[in-house]
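Protocol step 4 of 6: record predicted structures for both targets in the notebook before any analysis. Target 1:
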Amino acid sequence: MLKTGQDFLEGLRDGRVVYVGSERIDDVTRHPAFRNAAHSIAEIYDLKADPAYRDLMSFEEGGERFSAYYLKARSRDDLVRRTECHRKIAEMSYGLLGRSPDYIASFVTGMNLKPELFGRFAGNVTRYYEHMRRNDVYAAHAIVSPQAARDPNFWQKQNIPTPSCRVVREDDDGVVVRGMKMLATGAIIADEVWIGNILPLSPEAKAESITFAVPCNTPGLSLWSRKPLEPTARSEFEAPLTWRFDETDAMVMFDDVKVPWERVFVHNDPLLSRGLYIETPAHAYGNHQSNIRYLVKLQFLVGLASRIAAATGADQVPAVRETLGRLASLEALLAGMVAGQIQAAEEWPTPGYVTYNRRMMYAALNWGVENYSAVVDCVRELCGGGMFQMPADASVLDDPEIAAFFRTYWHTPQMDAVERMKLFRVAWDIVGSEFAGRHLQYEKFFPGALFVVRNHNFREAPWAEWTAMVDGLLARMEPPAPETLPLAAE
């Protein structure tokens, strides 16, 4: 069933516990810290429900329609269909909503190409997939232990429990968990939250190896938001990106939360707790979405760079055109890696299914982590001091006399004053605002620290094939027999 935006918003008024500092938020759909971001997600649901996009963003199975990101790909055409749905969703936010509803849904769909990996919990994984797609669920995730939990010896010496989320009791009807997980981007405006472990756990960390999913209004669960940025935007004119797309990040706190057994996917198995992401297509499906979202964001940044250069005629300067050409080549490079994930699709993990090429997917993740700062810096350099030449806010247009001065002296031959002001407001919001700073940090770390991303690339590389090329050459290099050597010059 495909939800509408109104269905989604009504579902958020469910008694979830959200804290901003000491303030408890009762309705995130109306609170100034979250309302616009919540409505941005609602727009995604409305787009999917629009008959004009029905075939692009959904598919039919068993007489029901489901969002296209729940499609289990059996061909390259199926992968293309998933990709185009991701692209349409990303374009709605200019690639700024990193954890839109298609993200975790893709992870769970990927897991269901190999549910037998989960052993006695395989049925739970399959049923959760059916629950998500039938109810068009928007799930967030938190799959990293808090930084304070990374030295277990400290907590043992202090004789106090680790802050990491862990099982503290097993009952007939489920497990009870206590502790924290980070960092649940989007959870404050999501239906449910998936909890797990993307980093390796020690064999002794069985209690922490729990993987499960629960609704965000589960008793005992609370979401602790970072500073919301949406309230810093006075209007969409002043900060158009902050105004609509601050999806929030939050710590997830569990205070003796009961998790029913049917919502448990891994328990007492540290190896599987991490392995489920890379031994199934979960990582390939989920991070392909990330690649698409990043590509759309890059296209937005390159388009913004072009507009900024054209606003003053700088686009006619050879050095500026060279910079724009470099940005265009970077976009084409990433687009090629995205296309390659489909063209070089793998028949994996089981016969009958295909998956986005994992090596190219991880390479694109690595490219993104390494290059986002440099791309933003190019946009910053093209802006120069233009952003600081603009009046403080749009109230300059309220007074006819002041507005006349502004329109007369701030325009250029290429663009009128108000359009320039709008352009530089957008530029500041992605280059210099707090929202921009959050995105700079996000793009560096959302797939994990750089060494984590590179280790994924190392793991998937065909080292045996590459070293065989070297070994083949070495095998030809037999020392020559002495009699075949030329005589030394006398």
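Target 2:
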Amino acid sequence: MSKKVSITLDDEVLDFIDQSASNRSSFINDILWQEKRRIFMEELEDAYKDQANDPELQQEISVWDVTVGDGLDA
């Protein structure tokens, strides 16, 4: 779903957009989706680092790593 909004841009920014794309809305939307993905990936990376530095979680993972292999024929 899309919504129409009104935003204010500096003249130089608008000139850049007009030189870079024929569809302002699509260009701005694409840039914002890229930024949203970048932020998500940073947060995900931080979460993985937190998990890697959590000794209790690492102990639990090591227990499950042993258990997962028990009795399975691969």
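Step 5 preliminary note on target 2. The helical segments are 11-20, 24-52, 55-69. Residues 32-68 form one domain.
Proceed to step 6 after PI sign-off.
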